[in-house]
Amino acid sequence: MSGVYLTLNAGSSSIKFAVFDAGDASSKPLIRGNVAGIGSTPAFSARSADGRALDAGALATLEGATDHEAVIALLLPWLAAQTADQPLRAIGHRVVHGGRDLAAPTRITPEVLRQIETLIPLAPLHQPHNAAAIRAVAKWRPDVPQVACFDTSFHRSQDRLAQLFALPRALSDEGIIRYGFHGLSYEYIASVLPDHLDGAARARVIVAHLGNGSSMCAMTGGKSAATSMGFTALDGLMMGRRCGALDPGVILYLMQQKGMTAEDIGTLLYKQSGLLGVSNLSNDMEVLQASAEPHAEEAIRLFCYRAASSLAGLIPAIGGLDAMVFTAGIGENSALVRGMICERLKWLGVELSDTANEGHAITISSATSRVKVLVIPTNEEAVVADACRAVLTTAQGGSALD
Ligand code: ADP
């Protein structure tokens, strides 16, 4: 099929985008870009497949681009010019939460958008922006089919036990279960694992997606068996600004003894905790690594300790460990963090080659390591583009979005 697919990943203050050739099933985008600082000082950057910085044109100043809708209004004509008006076949969105019902990539209809919006309370940092981007596209290009790809879908293969909290069953029946996130990243890693490991070596794998948001996924046969994030993207690992797993008694204490409101607690847990809260300096791992402050060092050590503990806690779901994979900003780039996490996993038979780790090789485990350790860059956009292709070719889903 000629034409292009556009993928959008709308965050609270940024929109990441990529353009793929609809006729080429490779995972390499023609263009990859980002509008950051939406709502404050917006900045645009984009590169072509060969790494060339592309001229921002009308996006250089981003005048009046105070929200996602305004940015999308400028982005769509810019893209049309870049792609020489090739037909835009579909726009695929990364949507954080699909709940129990939206378990596969779906053509967006008014009903699907309504379902996405009802899940906003479960992912308040991300879901409203995903929905805003869908609405903006519907306004400016109502003729183009939109496809939603959910970060929760990949985990729906899990056993019921991996999804349950030990809460009264009426609450589980209502949907208060562990959903898990970063599914598009895990799906991509699962799809390329056969390029790196033979069948036995990839039977039981834990993937560590370590970025601003961080989680882990234990997989058997390329399917999710358990994951560290739960009902929301707050659970599990320590993150840039999020606390990760927390004794729920702390929340009761903050409410009952310190008079904090739900909103105060939301801000504390989502925005003021994690690397930022512990270091009192930054949410950014690169900044912390460059700092001589003892609190920065403690934040890094806590991050790694908790990541190693979380990894160990996922092993019962898959009955052992043959390989682990590091991905996302920290996982792909921080030899220090990979080394500190693996140091705590030596008892499992994890042994790194320091040279390979520091050289950011694909395989960073030593030749004698019982567990293979890999570093694989993630590519969530490629999964979204593939989903556009699949949804369009099966003509799945009803009418276009009004
Ligand atoms: P997001 O979850 O927003 O997609 P990323 O996957 O881009 O985030 O990860 C961002 C994190 O990766 C930041 O903490 C950043 O400091 C970290 N990071 C990026 N490059 C490096 C590096 N060279 N060394 C250490 N950390 C890095």
Structural class designation: alpha/beta
Second CATH tier, the architecture of the largest domain: 2-Layer Sandwich
Query: What is the count of helical runs?
Result: 15
Beta-strand share of residues: 15-25%
Tally of discrete structural domains? 2
Beta strand count: 12
Which regions contain 5 or more consecutive residues with pLDDT less than 50? 396-400
Q: Give the averaged pLDDT, no decimals.
A: 94
**So what's the CATH class of the largest domain?**
Alpha Beta
CATH names the topology of the largest domain as: Nucleotidyltransferase, domain 5
Hetero compounds? adenosine-5'-diphosphate
Using only CA atoms, what is the Rg? 21 Å
Order of helices and strands: EEEEHEEHHEHHHEEEHHHHHEHHHEH
Reported for the largest beta sheet, the result is: 7 strands, mixed
Q: How would you sum up the global shape?
A: globular
> What is the strand arrangement across the widest sheet?
4-3-2-1-5-7-6
* CATH superfamily (homologous) name of the largest domain: ATPase, nucleotide binding domain
Distance between the termini: 25 Å
Fraction of residues in helices?
Answer: 25-40%
How would you characterize the overall build of this protein?
The chain is of the alpha/beta class and 402 residues long. The protein has two domains: 4-156, Nucleotidyltransferase, domain 5 (2-Layer Sandwich); 197-375, Nucleotidyltransferase, domain 5 (2-Layer Sandwich), CATH 3.30.420. 37% of the residues lie in helices and 17% in strands. The strands form two sheets. A seven-stranded mixed sheet has the order 4-3-2-1-5-7-6, with helices on both faces. The protein has a five-stranded mixed sheet with strand order 10-9-8-11-12, sandwiched between helices. A hairpin with a 4-residue loop joins β1 and β2 (15-21). α6 packs across α15 and α11 (294-314) packs across α13. It starts with a strand and ends in a 9-residue tail after the last helix. The model is unreliable at 396-400 (pLDDT under 50). The site of adenosine-5'-diphosphate has 13 residues, from α10 and α12.
